[in-house]
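Q: What would this chain look like folded?
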Amino acid sequence: MNITMLKSKIHRAVVTQAELNYVGSITVDSELLKEAGILEYEMVQIVDIENGNRFETYTIAGEPGSGVMCLNGAAARQVQVGDHIILMCYASMTPEEAKEYRPTVVFVNEDNSISRITSYEKHGEIG
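A: My prediction, written as structure tokens:
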């Protein structure tokens, strides 16, 4: 039996664009994807901190170092430019693998540049 665990996340990124007339997905600065261990076209869950919306889409690699965080297509209706989002991806693991695994957590500043990378999260604390 496998269980689904948090693989990695980009925490409190700022939405820089919302493009309704696009096929779909989220365009993310490719440096952020790399540091978080998220692949291009990988399924992700997005949580909008300001409005509580939760939805799934897939990633498209954006210009490295640009800080781009652009929701495309129908997902553009779920956010506003300037909203803070959490971008999470998950992995299927055996219980034994899950006991040892620690997710990669990429914290970003208001310009979506990396401020810190950890593999630690605990309730009420930002590791």
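The mean pLDDT is 95.
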